[in-house]
Amino acid sequence: MSQRDIVELVSHDDKRNGLEQIPESEMRDLRIDPVFKRTRYNSCEENYWVFRLSNQGRVIGKKYKNIFYIMSIDTKFKQYNHGS
Length: 84
What we know:
With 84 residues, this protein is of the alpha+beta class. It has helices at 6-10, 34-39; strands at residues 17-22, 48-53, 58-64, 67-74. 13% of the residues lie in helices and 32% in strands. The mean pLDDT is 83.
């Protein structure tokens, strides 16, 4: 996925792969490091970005310009509603 353009990743129709935004209000049990919260969190975009990695899990993060900060790796699919 790192070789693909962000437009291609976001427009990917397959809900098992690609990139999507999830509103902060939909996240469950996500603990943010206090130092990150104090120093970088407010500079990041409002929503979380989620890399969908097929049935292996999701990489959840915050984005600031072209920097992706990994907040969590959800291998049990429990940190937000996946529509199932």
